[in-house]
Amino acid sequence: MTRQLIQTVALGLLAGGVYALMASGLTLIFGVMNIVNVAQGAFLILSALFTYELWTRLGLDPILSIAVTTPAMFLLGWVVYRLFVARIRHAPASMSVLLTFALAITLEGAMGLVWKNVYRSVTPRYFASSFQAGSLFFPRAQVFAFLTAIVVLAILYVLLTRTWTGRAIRASSANPQGAQLVGVSIGSVAAMTFAVGVATAGAGGSLLSILYTFFPASHYQWISRLLGIVVLGGMGSLPGAVIGALMLGVAETVTATYISIRWAVVVFYLVILVVLLIRPQGLMGVRLREDVAL
Amino acid sequence: MSAGRVNGLLRWALLLAALAVLVAFPLARKEDAYHQTVLFLIFLFAVMSGGWNIISGFTGYVSLGQSAFLGIGAYTVALVALQVHVSPLFLVPLGGLAAAASAAVLGAVVMRTRGHSFVIITIAFLFLMQTVALNWRSVTHGSNGITLPLPRWNSDLGNMPFYYVMLGLMVLSVALSAWIRRTKFGMGLIAIREDEDKAAVIGVRTSVYKVLAFVASAVLIGVAGGVYGYFLTFIDPRGMFDILMSVQIVLAALLGGRGTIWGPVLGAFLLVPMNEITNNYFGTSPGERLFVFGLLLGAVVLFLPRGVIPTIRGWIDRFREAKRPAPTPRPSASAAPRTAGPGAAPDLEEGAPLLEIDGLIKRFGGVVAVDQCSLFVRRGSITGLIGPNGSGKTTLFNLVSGMSRADRGTVRLDSRSIDRAPAWHRAYLGIGRTFQITRLFKQMSVLENVVAPLGRFAWAQLGADAVSGPEARRAQELLDFVGMLPLADQPAGQLSFGQQKLVELAQVLMLEPQLILLDEPAGGINPALIQRITDLIRELNQQGVTFVVVEHNMPLVLSLCDPILVLARGRCIAQGSAETIQGDRAVLDAYLGEGWSRVEERLEV
């Protein structure tokens, strides 16, 4: 009984670590640009499909392929920003969310055309084996993915805190006008942020490919998860996203184990509803006065 | 007959002709099942986009989950139809009822959120409904779906009953939108879209308005869902709670023009044929359709954000504008209109505290904007509120008018605590305010802006014509009083800053307030208008209106206000007459920095 609970929570935390990486891009983009990138789920699936191609054609290990997918998605994010997102930077919230939504379904459609609506997954050798610690089992794929996610998140953290660009990104998130005054070009920072945000979906998608089966329309399920996490953690807060991801990872596996796997996804929808109603700023978000901000 | 009347008649004639064509079509082309179906789908999308337009076009809350109400309606009707042996077509009102009820419940809890949160919740709601329909197998049969009996009417009729019911729903939907747009309810919705906080401050009970708008946007979609489900004779969770359906709803409304009455109809007439073309030329694989609709939605958002109708209307207006000289305002010499309020009670002793603030604290993150502030404002006074930038004056106004909530402390009006009262209720109690940067509803005309405030809430008034009756007359009086009547029909956004300040004052007077908070009435406007505004303030004050004036123009404050309160670092540090304040050491320190008082003899105010 207890063993099962510990096992469940441990698996939840492993999943949560990967969720944290996936959600970091969403929260980063929201924090700096005040745009909910609904296409983040579609970027994840796209990267998973890239990973699938690299693995089936070149035999590249899915975790190592992060070195390819991350820069590729960074580039894609940058292009998408310059071509589309930059145009609605100053439009009302409703228009920006419609644009990213349009992006999501265009990507879904394109993926459906190229890869067809077939379930896939990437199955490297360690796919089906587990580490064993006492009576607990830890699937190797989950452990590797978790560790990789932590490493990528750490790199992201260092980028944000130790580099000029990172500081510019955080400054623009905290106070756009102030950042502009001290010489930060908001436009290029926004492009950089969007690209970095999509790049995290690159890494996240590669990990997704070994942990879950996926097909183009899976992105709805993923964006729902990510929105739940980001809303719980506080929109725009990176630490919040990590905490929210771990909590929801556990909540999801507990629901799947003790209630039914079919209801597990409902956890995220309910969290979105309840959090936005009771504490709209989430766990780590702060409310600021709005009347002076432009 | 005037040109306007001819235009109106012509429009009605055109509408009736178009309707007659649609009514006659199935009778004339009995065998043409394909085009009947296309038209049926056009009507369906017109109904759905029309509903979406009420909550998202009029009210400004974008819903991406509107197709959930289609599913709710379809499932309700199908489930009831399996129990009772009545044609599902007679049960469709139940679908509307179910959709309206779920919108009311969701709306009541969701409407506390704004902007991004609302969009996210509507997506979550749609997927939640789909998951429930998939998993609650004992009732919904899960992914197997529900099969409805085939229609029992004479097969010669074909799909005609569906066609006419949906056509009727479309007419109803347009009528509902047109009616809402004309009423005070509709004007309140537009006010919420333009500036929700401001709407609340002028007495629009925003929470009720928003829930009603959400219900109105759902009800006909629910009815249509019942019809649509029976038309398909098969419903399943993926088809009924379909995000792609939501996308098309949004797309049609955006294409035609959101916030307009005919936009959704025009959008449906554009979208459904495009849908058919895509199906015929690109095949029906979901990938292709998604790709095309995704691109289309993106293109509309980027290049045609206002939609076809408003864009064309914009061209026409610009063409007319070029031919007509702009009206110039002329000062008016009319007497001040009666103001209610205060007066309201002449027996009330002048000089008793009207507004009392006690130990008020407001924090923003680590900044304490208002810190243990206590002060009072006497009835009948023109109280000045001065203080350096950042001393908390505007925050204090926000707390008094209910735009934000204090962390601690009490605000009393007429010795009654109003801490728990929402902004609109404070407006009903007689608190009016203007803003440092004017916050008029820029898309509305000047007259509409002044008519918009509501001094009380009543269900009956929601349905009243927006600009009509005593309110319209009074608004014209007030506009005349501030000298802006000649500009009554101009969009408020086109006025100069000073003119906007005057209109905002007239807007506040509409509430017949007993207390008016003026935030920098003279800031950024020319001296002639400043004189006009101070004259108005004095005139209103003589009729009993109490004023609190935040202002940086010291000569103005010193001549107009008595007493004057001084705020620094969120606290009231001094109060008294102009002379007292000018000599007060703490005030000089606060304004000029400590140490300045040593050379205070050189100070000239």
Describe what you observe in this structure.
The complex is a heterodimer of chains A (294) and B (605). With 294 residues, chain A is mainly alpha-helical. Chain A has 11 helices and 2 strands. Chain A has a two-stranded antiparallel sheet. In chain A, a hairpin with a 2-residue loop joins strand 1 and strand 2. Chain A is globular, with a radius of gyration of 19 Å. The model of chain A is unreliable at 288-294 (pLDDT under 50). Chain B is α/β, with parallel strands linked by helices and 605 residues long. Chain B has 2 domains: 32-243, no CATH class; 353-602, P-loop containing nucleotide triphosphate hydrolases (Rossmann fold). Helices cover 57% and strands 11% of the residues of chain B. Chain B is built from 25 helices and 12 strands. In chain B, strand 11 (564-568) and strand 12 form a beta hairpin. Chain B is elongated, with a radius of gyration of 29 Å. The N and C termini of chain B lie far apart (64 Å). Mean pLDDT of chain B is 86; it is low at 329-336 and 338-348. The interface between A and B is large, with 55 and 54 residues.
Features:
heterodimer; A: about 290 residues; mainly alpha; ABC transporter involved in vitamin B12 uptake, BtuC; two-stranded antiparallel ribbon; 2 strands; about 70% helix; disordered C terminus; B: about 600 residues; alpha/beta; Rossmann fold; 2 domains; 6-stranded mixed sheet; 4-stranded antiparallel sheet; about 10% strand
Number of structurally distinct domains of chain B: 2
The second-level CATH architecture of the largest domain in chain B is: 3-Layer(aba) Sandwich
Q: What strand order characterises the main sheet of chain A?
A: 1-2
CATH class of the largest domain in chain B: Alpha Beta
- Kindly estimate the percentage of residues of chain A that lie in beta strands according to DSSP: under 5%
Looking at the structure, the CATH topology of chain A is: ABC transporter involved in vitamin B12 uptake, BtuC
Architecture of chain A in CATH? Answer: Orthogonal Bundle
Class by SSE composition of chain B:
alpha/beta
Q: How would the global form of chain B be characterised?
A: elongated
Order of helices and strands of chain A: HHHHEEHHHHHHH
Biggest contact? A-B, 55 and 54 residues
**Residue windows where pLDDT falls under 50 for at least 5 positions of chain A:** 288-294
Biggest sheet: strand arrangement of chain B: 8-9-10-5-11-12
Termini gap of chain B? 64 Å
